[in-house]
Amino acid sequence: MIAAIIRKELLAVLRDGRLLVLAFSVFAVLSGFFLASVAEHRQVQQEKRAVGATAKEQWDTQGVKNPHAAAHFGIYVFKPDSPLASIDPGLRQYTGQALWLEPHKRNEARFNPAADQGLAGRFGQASAGFVLYALLPLLVIALAFNAVTQEREQGTLRMLHSLGVSATKLLLGKFTGLLLAFVVVLTPAMLIAVIILYQNFDLAGDDILRLSALSGVLFVYYAVFAALAMSTSIHFKSSRLALFVLLAFWTGSVLIAPRLGATAAEMLVPTPSVAAFWAAIKQDIQQGLANDGDHDAREAAFNAQVLKQYGVARIEDLPVGYTALKRSFNDNYSERVHALHFDRLRDAFERQGRFVHIASLLGPSIAMRSVSMALSGMDLAHQRHFEDEAEQYRDYFIGLTDDWDRERSHGAERGAQGHDADWGSVKAFSYTPPPLGFALYHALADLLVLLAWLAVALIWLLFSANRLKP
Amino acid sequence: MSPNKPLLEARKLVVNYKNHRAIDALDLSVPAGCVYALLGGNGAGKTSTINTFLGFNRPTDGNVFIDGESPEQNPAAVRAKLAYLPENVALYNYMSGIENLSFFCTLANVRISRQQAHDLLANTGLQADAHDRRVSTYSKGMRQKVGLAVASAKQAKVMLLDEPTSGLDPSAANDFARRVRQAADLGMAVLMATHDLFNAKQVADRIGIMKAGRLVEEFDAHTVAHDELEHKYLAHARGSL
């Protein structure tokens, strides 16, 4: 019986000219956005590769200079985006993709606290991802808003009841048929997307897994809208009223909830301004963290410890370069302070993200958006992973130049020199993005929210079966 | 066919819609092979009676039975035994007559082959070239033939008709009446709500007049004269009886 209802629903969609026009429109819009995204993604990646190669070449050919001066020349590193970023560019434009690595501190431009607004600000921005999470639910609503009201209005519901069709089986059949019809309508656009991805990028196994996971999560997301739309169609006698209510829900879920959530999160977990953030770091370096003493006190203690370690009375008598030693000491302390403040800031962003979830009560779109960004490798967690790797690389190459500076000078003099052979021996930054498991782990809360929405929607649908009267 | 055990039965049936009494102490019995026509004006309680047999209304008091089963207590068994044709037989416009018939048969747990579906439609008089056409192009009479084909495929014991000839041209109404009569002659019990006196007199074995939810008068359709029936019907409608 359910199979017959599913087949009937499929026929209804496929033979309804208006829906085919709608499906073609979705196909055109999705393909258009996706092609534009792919072109932009390719261009960004090419620019990154070109700039990265140029920067490395300039680094390698600095000529003869002091190793620390060479370190100040700095190295640019870039986050290689997943091909899925062309579907969902996520927080790219807010977090930035290039990091300028140099001695003494983390790069200022890499983590702008003001960019926090991006989490909410991104909603409404056109991209293939926007079509998938914001516009396609409208197609689901268009398919489902009159699923039951139309049967009631046309009298077929009475016919079905008179045949003894159980309301639960009828609804499950209609729900499944509707989802299958939606998949049929969407399949051409998804196939085009996969072909374009395949032709433009070297898809790794993890990319394919991520793409599959994204498709699965999107299916759950659309199922939520389908179940809610069908339930609404049962509870309202007129198709028009059901449509009005569903459009209001869509507006709340897609447009209002993200902004409401971001505003609430900013109020509940305030983050410092850019100026305050850097001033606090500067102050902690100068005055020291708890019980560490201020800069002068720390340096005096360090001097005493170095003289004792090398068994000399004066700095001038040290067998290694004192300036490099002192710089390493100060840099280590500076890094500790930076790490503390950056971790606090990033923890604040994560707490904000959790508060944004409160707005998920208004709809599943926030959770879907977050999972989409995570699976595309364009969320905060992936950015943090990249920055941590870049920071490790900064430690590596700054440490190397400090070693050269210390070993090639003595006492207080600063005559150490490095050559192109030294600069060329610095390994290039190589970043391997984390696997799918990393994305799923960090998107777990959002996945649970989506599953909770699905459970609620299905329970409501089954509960609504009791109200299905002809 | 002689009247015997009732397939359709209402005993002291009362149905209230909030504060309005739609059916008031209705006693009704339709045996196999009998066509019972319920006459009455709008709001008399005809459709409410049919809806109660269908299980769409819950009796406020009293009982209804179809072949001894209560629609309230055993809806699946009851619906397996009945066929329902409303004034406008609701079909899916994007499907053909054959597809509609097959779909409704499947939902009724009746498996039929495509050839059987064609035969069933042909037996109702639906022209062969219409079988594979979408029903959006069908007239009301053609839709009713699809409904009759569903009833035939189900081998229903009971047929409930709600204003079946309303809006049909005389020829189609006559054809429909003939086919209802044939179904009854094969042992089906038919309850037909109608405004159409001529049709009722032509096809029915018994005729009842309803007014304000009550069955106010019953006739043997074979013995009552048309003029007498018309007179009584109009008198009840005017309230002079």
Describe the largest sheet of chain A: 2 strands, antiparallel
Q: In order across it, which strands form the biggest sheet of chain A?
A: 1-2
Question: For the terminal residues of chain B, how far apart are their CA atoms?
Answer: 33 Å
CATH architecture of chain B: 3-Layer(aba) Sandwich
Radius of gyration of chain A: 29 Å
Distance between the termini of chain A: 19 Å
What structural class is derived from the secondary structure elements of chain B? alpha/beta
What is the element string of chain B, with H for helices and E for strands? EEEHEHEHHHEHEHEEH
Number of separate domains of chain A? 1
N-to-C SSE string of chain A, H for helix and E for strand: HHHEHEHHHHHHHHHHHHHHH
CATH class of chain B: Alpha Beta
Report the CATH superfamily of chain B: P-loop containing nucleotide triphosphate hydrolases
Number of helices of chain A: 19
Instruction: Strand order, main sheet of chain B: write it out.
Output: 5-6-7-3-8-9
Shape of chain A: elongated
Task: Give me a quick take on this structure.
Chain A contains 19 helices and two strands. With 470 residues, chain A is mainly α. In chain B, the strands form two sheets. A six-stranded mixed β-sheet of chain B has the order 5-6-7-3-8-9, sandwiched between helices.
Describe this structure in words.
The complex is a heterodimer of chains A (470) and B (241). Chain A is mainly α. Chain A has helices spanning 2-14, 17-60, 67-73, 92-95, 118-121, 128-144, 149-154, 156-162, 167-200, 205-235, 239-268, 274-287, 295-310, 322-356, 365-375, 380-407, 420-425, 436-442, 444-464; strands at residues 75-78, 98-101. In chain A, strands 1-2 form a two-stranded antiparallel ribbon. In chain A, helix 1 (2-14) crosses helix 9 (167-200). Chain B is α/β, with parallel strands linked by helices. Chain B has a single domain, classed as Rossmann fold (3-Layer(aba) Sandwich), CATH 3.40.50. In chain B, 37% of the residues lie in helices and 26% in strands. In chain B, strands 5-6-7-3-8-9 form a six-stranded mixed beta sheet, with helices on both faces. In chain B, helix 3 (97-107) crosses helix 4 (114-123) and helix 5 packs parallel to helix 6. Chain B: GO terms for molecular function: ATP binding; ATP hydrolysis activity. Chain B: Residues 8-237 form the ABC transporter domain.
